[in-house]
Specification:
By secondary structure, the chain is an alpha+beta fold. It has a single domain, classed as SH3 type barrels. About 20% of the residues lie in helices and about 35% in strands. Strands 1, 2, 3, 4, 5, 6, 7 and 8 form an eight-stranded mixed β-sheet that branches. This is Growth inhibitor PemK. It comes from Methylobacterium oryzihabitans.
Length: about 140
């Protein structure tokens, strides 16, 4: 299976490590989640540094901390029909491809596809707002 290029907006299958799990001393995610690459920074003579935001079925406690994924986008990505949110208040940062990419549940690789540009723009704006205010929790996975 070929690895995709780590492009912003790409939804990948990933063993996401929640910030609360990292604080509790875990170093592996308990469950594979779809995640959105929100940032990919090319480094000279090194792998890209990637930031992935998790997608979850759990409704957010703080509405500003997540962006809901429209049903049509979920169908396009071949995700399940349950409501889902992209969490913008935390993320995992790692050298691509890392150890935590997983094959998708639909088969055919590690990626589900890309978010539509308008939805991705909302995600980036919300994530940047949390980060700018010092409220984002980024967990290093490298």
């Amino acid at each position: 299976m070929a690895l995709p290029e780590p492009e912003p907006g790409l939804v990948v299958s990933y063993a996401y490590l929640w910030h609360r799990e990292a604080v509790a001393g875990l170093d592996e995610g308990r469950k594979d989640h779809p995640g959105v690459i929100v940032l990919s920074v090319r480094q000279p003579r090194a792998s890209p540094m990637v930031t992935v935001l998790p997608i979850t079925h759990s409704p957010p406690h703080d509405q500003a901390a997540a962006v809901e994924i429209p049903a049509a986008v979920k169908r396009h990505l071949r995700l399940d029909d349950a409501p889902s949110w992209i969490v913008v208040s935390e993320g995992n940062v790692f050298d691509w491809p890392g150890y935590d990419l997983r094959p998708t549940v639909t088969g055919g690789g590690y990626a589900y596809g890309f978010l539509p540009p308008r939805l991705f723009s909302r995600v980036v704006t919300a994530f940047a707002g949390f980060h700018r205010r010092g409220r984002s929790r980024l967990t290093s996975r490298s």
